[in-house]
Write a structure and sequence with these properties.
The structure holds two protein chains of two kinds.
Chain A lengths: L1 H15 L6 H10 L1 H17 L3 E3 L3 E2 L10 H32 L16
Antiparallel strand pairs in A: 1-2
Chain B lengths: L2 H29 L6 H11 L3 H18 L1 H10 L1 H20 L6 H31 L19 H25 L2 H32 L5 H5 L5 H18 L3 H23 L2 E3 L9 E2 L7 H28 L12
Antiparallel strand pairs in B: 1-2
Classes of the chains: A mainly alpha, B mainly alpha.
Chain lengths: 119, 338
C-alpha cells in the first residue's frame, strides 16, 4: 500500500513538474527499492515454511514425496553447487553494476560499429 | 491414433524443436574457441544473440509437456539422472551467463574467461544430452516401483559416451553451417573451412553409432522390423545427412542448413521409433519399463492439455518465426549487441 501511495505521489509531482525538486521523495524512492525484494523473499519463506509438513496440502506429506533414487549427498552437492554459482554471479553482478554506474550514461551511438557492405 | 501416441509424438516434437534450434546455439559454442580474434568471437555470439533464449525455451516446454503428459517417466528420469541433470544445469547456466557478460568489460582476461565458459558450457550441455538419450535407448535399471536403481556412473558406458560424442559433432556441424549463413567476409570464410571437418567427424560418429545400435541395442530396430514401411525414416536420415556435404560442395549453404535441420529431425524421429512404445526401458527387468500407457496422466488430463497445446503451439511458432524474420541477414555489431 505504501509503495502504491509513493507511486501516486511521484506521478502527481511529475505531472506538476516539481518531482525533481522534491529531494526527500527521491531519497525515499532510492531505499524503497528494497521493499519489493524483502516482500518477495518473505512471501516465499511464508509459503514454503507454512505449508510444512505437507507438500500437497492435506494429501501428501513432504517426507512421503521424496525421490528414492536421489541420495541426500547428491542433494547436498547440488545445493552447494547452486550456492556457489549464485555467490559468483552476485559478485560479478555487483562488479558490473558498479562499473556501469561509475561510467555514467552513454552518449547516443552514431550507428553500427561494424557496417555492412552494400555490395 | 490414440491420445497416448499423440502425446508421445507431441513431446517428441517439442524436444526435436529444441534440438534443431538450440542445436546450432550449442554448436556455435562448440566452435567458438577455434578463433582467437575478439571481434570474430563477438560476431559468433551475436549470430545467436537474438534467438538463443527463445530456443532454449523449447527444452523447458518439452520438459513441461513430459511432466504433464507422462509424469511417471518425468519422475523416474529426472530423479534418476539427478547428478547428471545438475551438471547439465551448470553447463547451461554458464553458457547463458557467459553470453550476457562477455562483452561488458574490455579486459582480455575477462573476455577469455567468459569465452571458455560459453564454449565448455555448450559442449558439456550437448554431450550430456547425448548421454541421456543413449541411456534411454540402452535402457536403465528400474525396480518394480519404476525407481532408478543405479547411480551416476551407471549412466557412463560405451554406448552413452558414443551418443554423447555424436551429439556434440552433430551440433558442431549444425552450428557452423548456421554461422556461415549469418556472417560475412573473413569470419564467413573461416567458418566455411570448419564445416568440412565437422561434417566428416559427424558422419563417422553417426555410422559408428548406427552400427553399435543395430548390433548391441537390437530392441531399437524392432518397430521398423515389424512395420517395414517405417524404413523410410532411416532412409530419409541418411539421404539428409548425405545431402549436407553435397549442398556445401555446390556452395548452397542455405540448403545445407535445411538438410542439417531435416537430419536432426529424422534422427530424433528414428530415436522415437526405436524406443516406442516405451518411455523408459528397464534393462534390469523389461517388465518394469515405463511405457506411454503406464506412465501417462489420465485421459481427461491428456485431452485438456491437448486443447491447450493446440492453442499454444501456433503462438510459439508465430513468435519464433517473427524473431528469425526480424533478425534475418548477416550479423551487425551495434551499441546494443552482446
Amino acid at each position: 500500500m505504501t509503495l502504491i501511495l509513493l507511486s501516486f505521489l511521484g506521478v502527481y509531482y511529475w505531472w506538476r513538474g516539481t518531482l525533481f525538486d522534491k529531494r526527500w521523495l527521491l531519497w525515499i524512492f532510492v531505499f524503497a527499492i528494497l521493499a519489493p525484494h524483502i516482500a518477495n523473499q518473505v512471501g516465499w519463506i511464508a509459503a514454503e515454511v507454512g505449508r510444512q509438513p505437507w507438500i500437497v496440502y492435506g494429501l501428501l506429506r513432504t517426507s512421503e514425496g521424496l525421490s528414492e533414487a536421489v541420495t541426500a549427498n547428491a542433494v547436498l552437492g547440488s545445493l552447494i553447487m547452486f550456492a556457489l554459482i549464485y555467490l559468483l554471479l552476485f559478485a560479478v553482478f555487483i562488479y558490473l553494476l558498479n562499473e556501469k554506474i561509475q561510467h555514467g550514461p552513454e552518449e547516443k551511438e552514431e550507428g553500427p560499429i561494424i557496417t555492412r557492405h552494400r555490395a | 491414433m490414440d491420445l497416448h501416441v499423440i502425446w508421445f509424438i507431441l513431446v517428441g516434437a517439442l524436444f526435436t524443436g529444441y534440438a534443431v534450434l538450440d542445436g546450432f546455439d550449442l554448436g556455435i559454442g562448440a566452435v567458438h574457441l577455434f578463433t582467437d580474434s575478439d571481434e570474430e568471437r563477438r560476431l559468433m555470439i551475436n549470430s545467436i544473440g537474438p534467438v538463443w533464449d527463445g530456443n532454449e525455451v523449447w527444452l523447458v516446454t518439452g520438459g513441461g509437456a513430459l511432466f504433464a503428459a507422462f509424469p511417471e517417466a518425468y519422475a523416474t528420469v529426472f530423479s534418476g539422472f539427478y547428478t547428471a541433470f545438475m551438471l547439465f544445469l551448470l553447463a547451461l547456466i554458464f553458457r547463458a551467463v557467459a553470453i550476457e557478460f562477455r562483452s561488458k568489460q574490455p579486459m582480455r582476461w575477462w573476455r577469455q574467461m567468459w569465452d571458455v565458459g560459453f564454449s565448455v558450457g555448450s559442449v558439456l550441455a550437448a554431450f550430456l544430452l547425448g548421454v541421456a538419450m543413449g541411456n534411454i535407448a540402452h535402457g536403465i535399471p528400474l525396480n518394480a516401483q519404476h525407481v532408478y536403481t543405479g547411480n551416476f556412473w551407471t549412466l557412463i558406458h560405451p554406448y552413452s559416451i558414443l551418443t554423447g560424442l555424436t551429439t556434440v559433432a552433430l551440433f558442431a556441424m549444425h552450428g557452423s553451417i548456421y554461422g556461415v549463413l549469418k556472417t560475412e567476409d573473413e569470419l564467413h570464410d573461416k567458418l566455411r573451412t570448419w564445416i568440412r571437418p565437422a561434417i566428416i567427424t559427424f558422419i563417422l560418429l553417426f555410422v559408428i553409432t548406427t552400427m553399435f545400435t543395430l548390433l548391441f541395442e537390437p530392441h531399437m530396430a524392432s518397430l521398423i522390423k515389424t512395420n517395414p514401411v517405417l524404413f523410410l525414416v532411416p532412409l530419409i536420415t541418411v539421404l539428409a545427412i548425405a545431402n549436407i556435404p553435397r549442398e556445401y560442395y555446390f556452395n548452397r549453404d542455405g540448403r545445407a542448413f535445411l538438410s542439417s535441420c531435416v537430419a536432426v529431425i529424422s534422427l530424433l524421429a528414428l530415436f522415437g521409433l526405436g524406443i516406442f512404445p516405451n518411455m523408459v526401458y528397464s534393462i534390469s527387468d523389461p517388465a518394469n519399463s515405463l511405457t506411454i500407457y503406464n506412465a501417462a496422466s489420465s485421459e481427461k488430463t491428456l485431452r485438456i492439455m491437448l486443447t491447450i497445446a493446440a492453442i499454444g503451439m501456433p503462438l510459439v511458432i508465430a513468435y519464433t518465426t517473427s524473431i528469425y524474420y526480424i533478425f534475418r541477414g548477416k550479423v551487425e555489431l551495434t551499441g546494443e549487441s552482446y
